[in-house]
Amino acid sequence: MRLIKKETKIDFLGKRRFFFSLSLFLIVLGLVTFGLRGRSNFAIDFTGGRLLQVRFERPISLSQIRDSLKNIGLSQIPIQEVGKGHNEIVLKTTSDTSGILNQFKKELGGDHFEIIADEMISPAMSKSLKRKGLLAFLYGMVGILVYVAFRFEFRFAVCGVIAIFHDILVVMGFLSFFGKPIDTMILAALLMIAGYSINDTIVIFDRIRENLRKTRKTDNYLQLFNESINQVLGRTLITGFTTILVLLSLFFFGGNVIHDFAFALLIGVTVGTYSSIFIASALVIEWEKKSPHRFHV
After folding, report:
1. What pLDDT score does 81 carry?
2. Given 121, 152, 184, which residue is the final one in a domain?
């Protein structure tokens, strides 16, 4: 059974100006929110702070930890359970850890815990981590640009990379708007979003290339691109939908540790599917209209 009828002829690219405006609105709104929050957009992985690792004598839940820290206004700091005994946690904070330890002594069993690590994440280390993360992303973009340019054409490569930057900016805007700090897990999510987005886009570009080979003499690229998007629309929507189902499970049932990670991926996969259909190919069409070009496939 086909999800999308074979004769479907939705004019995606005819509405490209509307979707360009929608994307621009989301990006500008996100940048404004990001700018207003400033340093608060980043977790201590990128700003510096303290890392505390504690092992309790008996198993303890993260909800108990958060309830305890709520009384000193630290219930939202990142807390991760480690090990298999459900009795060891790692937390990151910009506050003095002595207050946290005193709170644990007061509400979580006196002295029945052991401090495994109490370390400072220096600003210099955070700056280095931020720089390496940015370089990893930029190297990935260059690799994608070279690969798509080699497999298709330079115009396709540039528009595919622009669509990735579009997705990343929209996701970062959502993260900032909902107060989700960017840490190393979010950075990993952004890199995964970039890979997912370009994969979806390449599927559409590949169908466009096939259709260009079949009709080498056509000058109506708008119609050919529209037909190509419609032909792979079912595959694109099914892939996005099934991925989102998995991410929804992680978001609701995966626990606090990966909650923000799953949130970022949820937004990213949704926006990546949207940009593959409405943005990437539309950018190629806009470029072709401003600078007519015979595609070599």
Report:
1. 82
2. 121
What value does the CA radius of gyration of the chain take, rounded to a whole number of Å?
24
Residue span of the structural domain in which 54 resides: 49-121
Closest CA to 41 of 216, 174, 198, 160: 174
Residue keyed to tokens 């997705």: 167
pLDDT, tens digit, 9 for 90 and up, residues 152-163: 888 999 999 999
Quick one: three-class SS letters along 93-160? ECCCHHHHHHHHHHHCCCCCEEEEEEEEECHHHHHHHHHHHHHHHHHHHHHHHHHHHHHCCHHHHHHH
pLDDT digits 0-9 by tens, 165-203: 999 999 999 999 998 989 888 999 999 999 999 999 999
